[in-house]
Amino acid sequence: MMNKAISILLAGTLACTSILAGCSSGQASSSAAPTSAGNSAAASADSSGKSYTFRFSEIQATTHPASQADAKFVDLVQEKSNGRIKIQVYYNAQLGDEKSGVQQVQYGGLDFTRASLGVLSGFDQKLNTLSLPYLFSSSDQMWNVLNGDIGKKFLDGISSSKMVGLCWYDAGSRNFYTKKPVTDLSGLKNMKIRVQESSLMMDMVKALGASPTPMDYGEVYSGLQNGVIDGAENNLPSYESTKHYEVAPNLLLDGHSRLPEMMLCSQKTWDSLSPSDQKIIQECAEEASKVERQLWADSEKSALDEVKSKGVKVTELSADELKKFQDAVQPLYEKYAKDNLDLIKQIQNTK
Question: Any signal peptide, and if so, which residues (predicted)?
Answer without folding.
Answer: 1-21
